[in-house]
Amino acid sequence: MFVTHLESALDGTRFEAGQVHTIHQGRPLWVRYDLPAIRAVVQPGDFAQRPPSLWRYRELLPLAGNAEPVTLGEGMTPLLPCPRLGRELGLTNLFIKDESQLPTGSFKSRGMTMAVSLAKQLGLKRLAIPTAGNAGGALAAYGARAGMEVFIFMPEDTPVINQMEAYLAGAKVFLVNGLIHDCGRLVRENAERYGWFDMSTLKEPYRLEGKKTMGLELAEQFDWQLPDVILYPTGGGTGLIGMWKAFQELNELGWLKFSREPKASARFPRLISCQSDGCAPIVRAFAKGERFAELFPNAHTIASGLRVPAAVGDFMMLDAIRQSGGCAIAGTESKIRPWMERVFRTEGIGICPETAVCFACLEQLLADGRIKPEESVVVFNTGAVQKYPEAVPLNLPHIDKNQPLDLSI
Ligand SMILES: *Cc1c(COP(=O)(O)O)cnc(C)c1O
């Protein structure tokens, strides 16, 4: 294990590795590694020899070397070229990184395989989480796998499949008449009383390390170069922050093909944080030039994973977006369903509503010239379309089996 220590993202205060940690002054911690020692024992080419799972990057992950991960088989997700859709949009190099194929149908399993593995290593037994949906489903599954008790608090209008998966996996599931930050407050205020460890995004340090593997996989799939632009649907921001952390670590390791070039920082992908115009706290803070985001009032969006009106990692997101030369932008809520249809019909890839928001943003960025036709663009499909029946009300024709078939087509 190559973790040297943990460190406050706000003021750099150091914390010892191998102990239970949460936040410092209400803000997240970074896990730090001995990168020169990692460089001495592993080369980028070594990873390809290992099983195609996020656990192939073991040296860059926080789990003790002798500890068994709590895993459901988090396969490396495909980077799917989208030539047909790219042609329609005027892009020569468009890709979807398809996270929908992960256990529990969303990329939340990356964070949870890591966080639950560490919770087990550290001897925690009772976990609680506020969730917009998929994180609860994933924690329920990994908690069951590890034999732990899981308590889940979700808004009462959370997609029914998230309620079902969490319940079936044996978690205690509670529906709250509020949003994720209200659920977060309930967990925080009652953690001591019920003996819960708070697994909220960025309030324990290891979900971030799991999400970091999106960046590691992407680097490997791009042959240790990186794409020009990444569009990422942003809620709590762990994915965005995790990828940026991955790129910094890979650069320090000297593993990126441009690592040794002067002005190498210009070669990092521009991170585009995409939110729905129904809940866009990061977009607002970005536009105002602020480092911390205000609570977004009356948050509403069918893209449930983006319904996060306040995020503890706001400044980490905004720092990453700005350092990368990217931006935060809002897609229109009314474009979600049309984009879900268009991407599935054009490329055969079912995308979640959160990713549909990214496509609405991509369209704007292409129209105003902020993304150029020849640039390589990766859009993250963070969840499986099948988890969102509420997003697409259907009205399909019925057939009477006793009548001759007469399709006016
Ligand atoms: C949680 C979630 C998001 C937001 O991810 P963060 O890393 O928390 O910003 C996006 N899409 C889906 C499907 C999600 O479940």
Condensed summary:
The mean pLDDT is 96. The longest helix has 16 residues, at 238-253. The chain has helices spanning 35-41, 83-89, 108-121, 134-146, 160-168, 180-194, 207-221, 238-253, 281-288, 314-323, 336-347, 353-367, and strands at residues 3-8, 14-16, 29-33, 79-81, 93-98, 126-130, 149-155, 172-176, 197-198, 229-233, 270-276, 327-331, 376-381.
Any chance you could write out the topology, listing elements then pairs?
Elements: E1 3-8, E2 14-16, E3 29-33, H1 35-41, E4 79-81, H2 83-89, E5 93-98, H3 108-121, E6 126-130, H4 134-146, E7 149-155, H5 160-168, E8 172-176, H6 180-194, E9 197-198, H7 207-221, E10 229-233, H8 238-253, E11 270-276, H9 281-288, H10 314-323, E12 327-331, H11 336-347, H12 353-367, E13 376-381
Parallel strand pairs: 5-13, 6-7, 6-9, 7-8, 10-11, 10-13, 11-12
Antiparallel strand pairs: 1-2, 1-3, 4-5
Helix pairs in contact: 3-4, 3-7, 4-5, 7-8, 8-10, 11-12
Bound molecules: pyridoxal-5'-phosphate.
Pyridoxal-5'-phosphate (PLP) is lined by residues 106, 108, 134-135, 201, 233-239, 305, 352, 354, 382-383.
